[in-house]
Amino acid sequence: MIGYVFLNIAIMIVLLGVLFYMNKKHISFTKRVFTALGLGIIFGLLLQYFYEPGSVAIVKSTDWFSIVGSGYVKFLQMIVMPLVFISILAAFTRLKLTSNIGKISVLIIGILLGTTAIAAAIGITSATVFDLEAVQIEQGDAETSRGVEITEKTGTIQDKMTMPQQIIELIPANPFLDLTGARSTSTISVVIFAAFLGIAYLGVKRKQPEHAEFFAKIVDALHSIIMRVVTLILRLTPYGILAIMTTTVATSDLDAILKLGKFVGASYVALIVMFLIHLLLLMIAGLNPITYLRKAFPVLSFAFTARSSAGALPMNIQTQKQLGVSEGIANFAGSFGLSIGQNGCAGIYPAMLAVMIAPTVGIDPLSPSFIATLILIVAISSFGVAGVGGGATFAAILVLSAMDLPVALAGLLISVEPLIDMGRTALNVSGSMTSGLLTSKITHDLDKDQYNETSVKLDTEM
To answer: Residue 426 burial (CB < 10 Å; 0-12/13-18/19+)?
Structure first.
């Protein structure tokens, strides 16, 4: 068995070497990401074919693969807080955010919540068209165990966080703690802290310009260093995607996916429709959706494979800048999008579960009152997910509890969660970038020439 593990590791090293060779030949970043995605899928399927699911060879091999995959994600998470903090602050010192900060924040949050409401409506429609019902879900031991665990914890979670308390959680009582990412709301708290420092800088600039100038130089120097670190990390993206995708495919439970294929299919139909709506909104705003697709592909591919909106934040911000969004708005949109108005996790998913569960307790899921209430609760709860953390499952718990529906189903889809979560995460990231683009367009801050620029330079021009 050890020999097979060494063979698998050797194959992975060869594939990483192929990507390194492509880099040396100056093949475009997007093509390398696409190649890594394809190689990861193929290698993962081969591992599934030659070994038994959950075999020692796959477990030990993917454990070694995680040095590249999980290591890459950790590097991205390492830079998230410094990037958000220094970029927001630099936006003030470089006069990119001044009196418009309130309008920008309201627009970004409004677009995130609005698109989440639309996503909920799409989730309701998809669940109805595919005739999904909770009784169709087959429960194995793992699913049943998780359902019981979630049911037991729901009361504690709901008692702990009311809506006002969730809002208060966003305020940084200890900004140094939030800079460590210790809380689920840390990112937004860091944004708020950096904005306060930026506003203070503007006040000092009027009264003590020499002190403000010295501070601006420090911020500018730190910004240059942090952005260089981001550049170094993002150049590792193809290697990270290869390892992550291989592990995801190799460890997926294909039998469970086939059994729950109807739910998986309905979920992806809803996710794709919502993504098309993102493109439609951009087209209505006068922006070419094809250009958006081409430039957003690397970050959406990473979000899809890594299932981490936080890990995708550096690429998210850089992609928005490549699309002509100013640095300040890009940071606000990317940071708020981590915890507010996630179209996939907090929009589509909870709405689908609610429609599936409603008939089991004698509620007509197609009644206008139920649909209107569900969409409203989904939109409001998507703002509160940051208060409890836990992604799609906790978003579903909040919505189902608010609708007085049983919450156990949120734990009965454990076998297909990774597969669906890939699409949800990509949609979440697309939603945050769309909010940044639309906000820039509304505030007349979008650089149309940069948006229409044909080249994608995420790995070299930062």
So the answer is: buried
